[in-house]
Amino acid sequence: MVEAIHGESGAHTMKIEAIHLREIAMPLVQPFQTSFGVTIQRRILLIEIESDGLSGWGECVAGEHPYYSEETVDTAWAIVAGELGQMLLKGPVEHGGNCPSLFKRVRGNRMAKASLENAVWDMEAQRRKVSLAELLGGTREVIGCGVSIGIQPTPEQLMEKIEAEVAAGYQRIKLKCQPGWDVKIFEMVRKRWPDIALSCDANGAYRIRDFEHLAAFDEFNLMMLEQPLWYDDFYFHSMLQKQLHTPVCLDESIRNRRDALAAIDMESCRIINVKVGRVGGFSEAIAIHNATSERGVPVWCGGMLETGIGRSHNVALSSLQNFTLPGDVSASKRYWAEDVIEPAVEVSVNGEITVPGKLGRGYEVRKDLIEKLTVRRETLRP
Ligand code: OSB
Ligand code: MG
Q1: Which of 43, 242, 254, 301 sees the fewest Cβ atoms within 10 Å?
Q2: What pLDDT was estimated at residue 359?
Q3: Ligand 1 center to residue 150 CA distance, Å?
Q4: Is the pLDDT of residue 198 over 70?
């Protein structure tokens, strides 16, 4: 059980003077293809809250299109500007943990909620002069890192990518898969690398008619098979898990702690991917962490092609004790020519990131660069 540091009631009320919304445009260093589409350039909503001379930052992980989840950059913008931002300015807020109750009337829109809540936690760590990891209840000094490798134009190009990531020291290779890009690929990869920690992620690309085909994945000793079926399903994943030796891992299906409990009870999965944006913020991510920890279900931290702001938040979250499996939190340079934080997130030759012990997120925000990348802005005040 992990308990975040909480303030004494009333002692540290935060007077939020402004909430700045910015959309930045950033090209990826290489296209990223999943079963739901290709991303070449990202449009990203960043949140900056101002209080008492400090800035707290949050990154909204919603994509440009509603393909991974229902939310998009534009829906999140509208919900933050029109609903959640006003609720946060009204407060009272002392702590990121106050946000879920302030935002309660708004259903769903979890990525929009997380972008504000996480900015409050980011601010709170600076006010208390502790690291964000410590504020969240994290104890690990280093975290284990894996990579997620998109579907490639050719199998040869995939093999080159894997070779480079294995050489870089990453502890686990995750391959995006879909019908036509699965068992043949796994065969090639296992022939060359019989022993690497390997997993795959279908982002919901398979159906019930594919159960026998998915059972053939057992041959490849995968650490897990991530979200093989519909993005909102538990029941059929439970049917599938009964027929597989390979652990199923749920990503899209898990929206909150209750979903995690239901999935564990039904045995829809044996592993859970925690993405702080997908579950609505750090409070719910910690609740899922604690529930899975009590039940002996391992978790790992997922990624959403974040800039350094969201990436630094993922590093802090990964420092909680039940994040026992290598996550999808990897080096900034795999995504960006220039990241919006300083230093960039770096991974050691043994595939680890050192959790910053400094106050706050532990990486400086490069506001000058963010200004240059900004294509849209709006400021909310009390
Ligand atoms: O399903 O984990 C996913 C990227 C975008 C949307 C969904 C997913 C992903 C990844 C990449 O797998 C994770 C990362 O490296 O940021
Ligand atoms: Mg996934």
Answers
A1: 242
A2: 92
A3: 9
A4: yes
- Residue of 328, 330, 334 to mutate, ligand 1, most atoms within 8 A of C-beta: 328
Q: Which two tokens stand for residue 144?
A: 């284990």
Cα-to-chain-centroid distance, residue 1:
21
Q: What average pLDDT does the segment 57-70 reach?
A: 98
- Tell me what percent of the residues of the chain surpass a pLDDT of 70: 97
For residue 281 the two structure tokens come to 């913020």
Ligand 1 atom closest to Cα of residue 275: 2
| Cα angle, residue 231 at apex, residues 266 and 263 outer, rounded to 5° | 15
Tell me how far apart the alpha carbons of residues 170 and 24 are, in angstroms, rounded to a whole number: 29
Q: Check residue 67 and give its pLDDT.
A: 97
Q: Which ligand is nearest to the CA of 62?
A: 1
DSSP string, 139-162: --SEEEB-EEE---SSHHHHHHHH
Q: How far apart are CA 140 and CA 147, in angstroms?
A: 20
Helix (H) / strand (E) containing 214? helix 211-215
pLDDT for 59 = 98
Q: How far does the centroid of ligand 2 lie from the alpha carbon of residue 212, in Å?
A: 22
Tokens of 173: 């290779």
Atom of ligand 1 nearest to the CA of 39: 5
Which atom of ligand 1 is nearest the CA belonging to 203?
A: 1
- As a whole number of angstroms, the distance between CA 182 and CA 159 comes to 14
Q: For residue 145, which ligand has an atom nearest its CA?
A: 1
What is the CB < 6 Å shell around ligand 1? 68, 148, 201, 203, 251, 302-305, 328, 330
Residue 323: DSSP 8-state: B
Residue 89 CA to residue 49 CA, distance in Å, equals 10
Question: In testing the pocket of ligand 1, which one of 175, 304, 307 has its CB within 8 Å of the most ligand atoms?
Answer: 304
**C-alpha to C-alpha distance for 145 and 352, rounded to whole angstroms:** 6
CA gap 242, 238 in Å, rounded: 6
Coil, helix or strand at residue 50: strand
Phi, psi for residue 149 in degrees, rounded to 5: -110, 120
pLDDT at 140 over 60: yes
Catalytic residue IDs? 176, 275
